[in-house]
């Protein structure tokens, strides 16, 4: 199966990976959350080849994660996170939490502090009904309504 065909699979983990599943895209997003908006700043901060950066920014714009518009000063285009883009912040923070726990032998290289109380930002998996914190052992996947069209199509074939 080709990588692009993965977008057609009825899986809410697989589909986003088609858009986000390479290091450069996630690093571009990390920079965007740090306030970077201009192409040259992304390129210089990341050391990414221009053509690869154009591709990643274009993909993020195509998927409405970033929007490209003229900067307020009118001199350059800039890239800004959309609401959909801001929804990815917990994803990056979950990767950061995992990296701090498993790949930072000297401790976290950056601490992400809550502005109000100086506590640290962490991602936690919790039940949307009772609020109980969960791990993979507490979760049981089951078919959802988005799977029905695929099941029906399979039954017809």
What's the gist of this structure?
This protein is mainly α.
What does this structure look like?
It contains seven helices and two strands, in the order ααααββααα. 42% of the residues lie in helices and 6% in strands. The two termini are 20 Å apart. The longest helix has 14 residues, at 89-102. The protein has helices at 14-20, 23-33, 39-46, 50-62, 83-86, 89-102, 148-156, and strands at 66-70, 77-81. A hairpin with a 6-residue loop joins strand 1 and strand 2 (77-81). The protein has a two-stranded antiparallel sheet. The radius of gyration is 19 Å and the shape is globular. By secondary structure, the protein is mainly α.
SSE arrangement:
Layout: H1 14-20, H2 23-33, H3 39-46, H4 50-62, E1 66-70, E2 77-81, H5 83-86, H6 89-102, H7 148-156
Antiparallel strand pairs: 1-2
* Fraction of residues in helix: 40-55%
Strand order of the largest sheet: 1-2
Percent range for β-strand residues: 5-15%
Arithmetic mean pLDDT: 92
Key features?
157 residues, mainly alpha, two-stranded antiparallel sheet
